[in-house]
Amino acid sequence: MLELNNQYTTIKRQVHTAVLKQFFQDTLVENVDKIPIQLIPKQRTSNRCCIYKERAMVRYRIMALLGFDIETEDDEMKSLSSYVQEIMEEDKPLSPLLTTISTACSSCPPDRYMISEACRGCFARPCLANCPKDCITFSGGKAHIDESRCIRCGKCMEVCPFHAVVHIPVPCEQACPVDAVKKNADGYVEIDWDKCISCGKCAMSCPFGAIVERSSIMTVAKKIKNKDHMTAIIAPAIEGQFPGTLTQIKGALLAAGFSSVIEVSEGAHETCLHEADELAARKREGTGFMTTSCCPAYMNLVDKHLPFLGGRRSSALSPMAYTAMLAKKRNKETSVIFIGPCLAKKDEASALGTIDGVLTFSELASLFVAKGIDVREMDTTDSEDVSYFEDCREFALSGGVAACVSKRAAVGDEISLFQVNGIDRKMVRVMKTWEKRPVDADLVEIMCCEGGCINGPGVVAKPSVALRLRGGNKASRPVEAMRAILKQKE
Amino acid sequence: MEKKEKVSVKICVGTACFVQGGADLLLYQDFLDPVVLAGCDIQGVSCIGGCKDDAMQVRPPYVEIAGQVFGEMTQEKLCKLLQEAIHA
Question: ipTM, 2 decimals?
Answer without folding.
Answer: 0.83
